[in-house]
């Protein structure tokens, strides 16, 4: 064990860059970016240890401080839902039709039927309505559009 410690002590500050490589390899195996922030901390300590001659104990303390600071920074400034999109309902197609006036293609009976949206038939849920009736989409439930009869005046 002492020989291993002597080997690592012989590398000095370069141990931190070896740790960066090891954490990079872990990041490629483990899904996500869990070790990215520790890599930043290890790079910071490696650069600090090369610039200033500090003992390994203080290097470990600096690594802990840098790791905590990196984790807190990520928690404060990087949010899972922070990605903004100009089309928020892109992958929720049924939500895009809310408020649209559609025509019943296959009669809605016992709460289920089909409506035409462009050149596509969608399942519809709502009050019974014969084919040809105008309905308004009020919501989406899975792959079915929730509809209600429209108050269209002729």
Describe the structure.
The protein has 154 residues and is of the alpha+beta class. It has helices spanning 2-11, 14-29, 36-51, 56-77; strands spanning 101-109, 112-117, 120-125, 134-141, 144-149. A hairpin with a 2-residue loop joins strand 4 (134-141) and strand 5 (144-149). Helix 2 runs antiparallel to helix 3 (36-51) and helix 3 (36-51) crosses helix 4 (56-77). The chain is rod-shaped. The relative contact order is 0.09. The mean pLDDT is 86.
Report how far the terminal alpha carbons are from each other.
91 Å
Quick check: average pLDDT?
86
**Shape summary:** rod-shaped
Strand order of the largest sheet: 1-2-3-5-4
Could you give a quick summary of the protein structure above?
The chain has 154 residues and is of the alpha+beta class. It contains 4 helices and 5 strands, in the order H-H-H-H-E-E-E-E-E.
Summarize this structure as a short list of keywords or feature phrases.
five-stranded mixed beta barrel, single chain, rod-shaped, 42% helix, alpha+beta, 154 residues
What is the topological layout?
Layout lengths: L1 H10 L2 H16 L6 H16 L4 H22 L23 E9 L2 E6 L2 E6 L8 E8 L2 E6 L5
Parallel strand pairs: 3-5
Antiparallel strand pairs: 1-2, 1-4, 2-3, 4-5
